[in-house]
Amino acid sequence: MIRSTTSTLILALAVSTAPMSAAPAAGAVSDPAPTPVAEPEWDRTMDRVALDALVTGEDSAALAVSGSFVGRFGYTPEWQDAMAVAPAGACSSPIPLPDAFRSPCAAHDFGYDLLRAVEPASSKARRELDMRLIDRLGEQCAESSPPTGAHWSCRILVEAISRGLRVNTWRQDGEPPLEESVSDILLSLVRKVVAT
After folding, report:
1. Which of 81, 104, 100, 82 is nearest to 151 (CA)?
2. 38-63 burial string, b = 16+ CB within 10 Å, else e?
């Protein structure tokens, strides 16, 4: 039982802890991390309204983000499959995921960028974004296959993603997600478990 739970936790954590960046090769020059720019209060308010709209399911209203958001994250959200999405957003996973998951993952990426834009954001907003992703992935399983082996495989995958999101949100205290290396993730997980 412990071995099974540990395996599930490791798989779930691996599926959900991206974006992960590999360490640059020896002698390689890496791009510097983007420097947060102080946003005017109006921009922060506009982005907070967009986040609230996204969390409550009013995706079309979430498309109205500030110029500061566009400048900081380098994109304007787009409408795709009835969702407001980060155009280059995708599922971050060490294993291949169904193509049908792309739009829900891109919407989740956009939500996480909004969390970063309005920081400090409530941990409730992050949990709501995570639950919307899981609901949407579950809908994709229901739409893409009848209750067969493929359907149940899809459901199991969604459950692993759900567990990974919960662990990762717990590990980061519900704060906006950070880009971390694999070693940063493992170290923070150990610290969190030891502190509990």
Report:
1. 100
2. ebeeebbebbbbbbbbbbeeebeebb
Identify the pLDDT of residue 184.
Answer: 86
The residue range of the domain holding 129 is 37-195
Task: Give residue 2's pLDDT.
Answer: 35
Residue 121 domain flag: yes
Is residue 14 in a domain? no
Q: Is 83 helix (H, G, I), strand (E, B) or coil?
A: strand
Q: Which residues lie below 8 Å from residue 96, measured CB to CB, with a gap of 6+?
A: none
117 vs 72: CA distance, rounded Å: 8
**DSSP run (H or E) holding 78:** strand 78-80
Q: Quickly list H helices, 24-148.
A: 41-55, 59-62, 67-73, 102-117, 123-144
Q: Give the pLDDT confidence score for residue 188 in this predicted structure.
A: 86
* CB-count burial class (<10 Å; 0-12, 13-18, 19+) for 193: exposed
pLDDT at position 22 over 70: no
H or E segment and range at residue 189: helix 182-195
Q: Are 86 and 106 in contact (CB under 8 A)?
A: yes
